[in-house]
Amino acid sequence: MGFSYVAAVAILLSSSLIFFGMVYGEFVQSNSQVSSAQDKMNQENYDLINSKVNITGYYVVPGTTYNVTINMTNTGSITLNLDTSSLLVNGTMTNFTPSANYLFPLGNGSITFHSATSGLKSVELIFNTGYEKFTEVDA
Fold first, then answer.
1. Checking DSSP bridges between strand 66-74 and strand 108-115, what pairing results, if any?
2. 49: three-class secondary structure by DSSP
3. Residue 82's closest CA among 109, 50, 60, 117?
4. Check: CATH 2.60.40.10 for 53-138?
5. Which residue, 103, 7, 2, 6, is CA-closest to 55?
6. With contact defined as beta carbons under 8 Å apart, do 99 and 109 qualify?
7. CA–CA distance, 89 with 93 (Å, rounded to integer)
8. Tens place of pLDDT for every residue, the chain, 139 residues?
9. DSSP per-residue codes, 66-92
């Protein structure tokens, strides 16, 4: 009877150690993933807060389609990637051509898009940082 008691305690102790070892390993991994996600969210918030663009003007070249060019200046402290930015014209995703791939802080740039019709258009430019800039153009 004494041997079975010692064997049972040894089995329970070793299985408890294995169980808690597995639980601790998963806890460390999940804690690391949460920390990494928090760091990424903090970086994205920093980029969004420090993004700012001023629209300095626009001009329209009429023809078979209206070519609208919007000039802008990056007054924020974050470099904006125009290749991964989006342009909405009257709520519709529209292709555009940037003057350069990146808009550096205190740098000037422009985007050009084509419009089949004339008239007042609401334009929203959404940058890679999540910053949005609204303007209206009369093409």
1. antiparallel
2. helix
3. 109
4. yes
5. 103
6. yes
7. 7
8. 677 888 888 888 888 888 888 888 899 999 999 999 999 999 999 999 999 999 999 999 998 889 999 999 999 999 999 999 999 999 999 999 999 999 999 999 999 999 988 899 999 999 999 999 999 998 7
9. EEEEEEEEE-SSS-EESTT-EEEETTE
**Torsion, Cα of 19, 24, 26, 30 (10° steps):** 160
Instruction: Name the amino acid, one letter, at 125.
Output: L
Which residue in 81, 127, 120, 86 sits closest to 100, CA to CA? 81
Query: From CA 24, how far away is CA 19, in angstroms rounded?
Result: 9
Residue extents of the structural domains in the chain: 1-49, 53-138
Tokens found for residue 100: 């350069």
